[in-house]
Amino acid sequence: MKIQNAIMAILAALLLAAFGLWAIGASYYGLSMLAAGLCCALFTLAVLFFIPAFGGSLFASDANPDSLLGQRSLRWPHRHPWLQIALAVLLLRLFLYALAYGVDLRVNGYGGGLLDGLARLWLRTDSPSYLGIAQNWYVTEGDPRFHIVFFPLYPIFIRAFSYLTGGHLFAAALVVSNLCAVGGSILLYELAALDFPRREALYVALLAALLPGAMFLGAPMTESLFLLLSLACAYATRRKAYVWAGLLGGLAAFARSVGVLLVALMAFEMFTELFREKDWRARRILSYLGCLLLVLMGTAGYLAINYFVTGDPFTFLTYQREHWNQGLGLFWNTIAYQTDYLLTALAGGEFRMVWGLFLPNLACIFGALAIMLPAVRKTRPSYTAYFLVYFAVTIGCSWLLSAPRYLAVCFPLAFGLQALLGNAPKWLRFLVPLLLFAGLCAYAILYILGYPVY
Q1: Contact 431, 238 (CB under 8 A)
Q2: Which is it for the CA torsion 344, 348, 353, 359, positive or negative?
Q3: What does the pLDDT average to over 264-282?
Q4: CA separation, residue 159 to residues 109, 219, 273 (Å)
Q5: Rounded to an integer, what distance in angstroms lies between the CA atom of residue 311 and that of residue 285?
Q6: Does 258 have pLDDT greater than 80?
Q7: Where are the chain's structural domains?
Q8: Residue 189: what pLDDT?
Q9: pLDDT band for position 165 (cuts 50, 70, 90)
Q10: pLDDT, average across residues 392-406
Q11: How far is CA 391 from CA 116, 121, 155, 324, in A?
Q12: For residues 317 and 397, what is the distance between their CA atoms, to the nearest angstrom?
């Protein structure tokens, strides 16, 4: 207990000291500073709640929900309803495509065939860059030279599937994204089913599919592939297949920069296993470290591509800083400037920026903390650890474009929501998905109407 309290005191002191040093030199005032302080306080509380939750989990044992089920409930089609999940995901994606097409038809009139219309609507933000990499790989001249900042795994899949779509890259991208969205929902269900009965596992998958940023899971962007690989890594880790977990985590790191953060989830699961079994043999520890290094190999592969294409393994950092003013920062600084920009946009009547960018960003950031803070004690510690590092890194970027998109693929959020709603009244368990669905549709409409939704 003394060690636990000491760790909590040290972490709280470090976070508060970092915030204090930042605040001294910051040029924000009023609501912007207040919002930054609130964000830091909520995150610090989540960290402090996490420490005893993790300490308690070391002396607990994992429950097997299957032990509570009868023989009929354990039949494969009932316990593993993959077909039903796949159909539900595809219907949701088709609905969003139809909604986008219908909104565009209503506003702009007929603009061509279905596939061409979808391409015009969904080939925005980062999507053309991924298709450009799929077509020409990385180049060193013209504007396409900046494509080096985008990770290669998703374009590789697009190129591979384009041979099945007659060379049509956009169609291939839709196939890849939707297959990954289906696979991700199935894997999320299976991951949840390790701890919950069928009803609750399905509820976790439902909540994740309806997050506003989940709109991008069907877009020609890397989110659905990254989510699939992240969940595959987490599932393999829970099954103690650590070599597979490392390989899958490495692929996630080859798909997005934050894939490397999966080492946090793996490390906490490994440490918990070693502690419970009281097995600290050097050979076993070294083998686990080797599995963690496999995740880093995905990042190393991307750095190698940077080197072979441009001669510098860190060219992507230079381009991000010079072309997009992007870099790592403190997440509470993000809250401060987003709040500052929101107030400026409101004062200037720039309501498209308010509704498309700043308000969704702030709502999702504080919403994520509001979900995870009370759920920390009920959520698996390794998932919470992954959420905390993922949140700090993704929200801490110096120019945050899409908190809804980034947080939609942080799967612990769905577990946090389930933890809050597990024993809630039926009407509330129905109302929350309904509100999420409304938010998902509204966010998709803003995207189609050309609001600054990235």
Answers
A1: no
A2: positive
A3: 96
A4: 32, 16, 40
A5: 36
A6: yes
A7: 1-60+325-422, 79-324+425-435
A8: 98
A9: very high
A10: 95
A11: 36, 29, 26, 21
A12: 12
Percent of the chain with pLDDT over 90: 88
Could you give the CA distance from residue 391 to residue 406 in angstroms, rounded to a whole number?
A: 9
CB atoms within 10 A of CB 106: 8
Q: Which residue has the tokens 């803070």?
A: 373
3-state class (DSSP) for residue 397: strand
| Cα–Cα dist 272/285, whole Å | 12
* In the block, residue with structure tokens 């970027």: 397
The DSSP bridge partners found for residue 359 are none
Structure tokens at 413: 């959020």
- Which residue type, as a one-letter code, is found at position 102? G
Measured CA distances, 261 to 187, 252, 401 (Å): 19, 10, 20
Residue whose tokens read 């962007």: 221
Phi, psi of 396 (to 5 degrees): -80, 5
C-alpha to C-alpha distance for 224 and 453, rounded to whole angstroms: 17
Q: How far apart are CA 50 and CA 138, in angstroms?
A: 42
Q: How far apart are CA 282 and CA 95, in angstroms?
A: 53
Q: What's the CA angle centered on 402, arms 397 and 403, to 5 degrees?
A: 75
pLDDT tens for 129-140 read 999 999 999 999
The token pair that represents 452 in the structure block:
């600054």
**Which residue's structure tokens are 């999966």?**
262
Report whether 35 contacts 336 (CB < 8 A): yes
Distance between CA atoms of residues 118 and 199, nearest Å: 35
Residue 51 above 60 pLDDT? Answer: yes
**Token reading at 142:** 């013209």
397 DSSP β-pair partners: 328
- Phi-psi domain of 312 (left: phi exceeds 0; alpha: psi -120 through 50; beta: other): beta
10 Å CB burial of residue 212 (0-12, 13-18, 19+) is buried
Specify the amino acid at residue 216.
F
Contacts of 319 (CB under 8 A, 6+ apart): 145, 146, 148, 149
Residue 206: count other Cβ atoms within 10 Å of its Cβ: 23
The two structure tokens encoding residue 19: 């915030």
Q: With H, G, I as helix, E, B as strand and everything else as coil, classify residue 328.
A: strand
Element (H, E) at 387: helix 381-395
Question: 43 with 15: CB under 8 angstroms?
Answer: yes
Q: What does the pLDDT read at residue 1?
A: 74
Residue spans of beta strands (DSSP E) within 96-148 = none
Secondary structure, 3-state, 59-102: CCCCCCHHHHCCCCCCCHHHHCCHHHHHHHHHHHHHHHHHHHHH
Other Cβ atoms closer than 10 A to 162: 21
* Measured CA distances, 309 to 19, 35, 252, 306 (Å): 39, 42, 21, 5
Tokens linked to 139? 């180049």
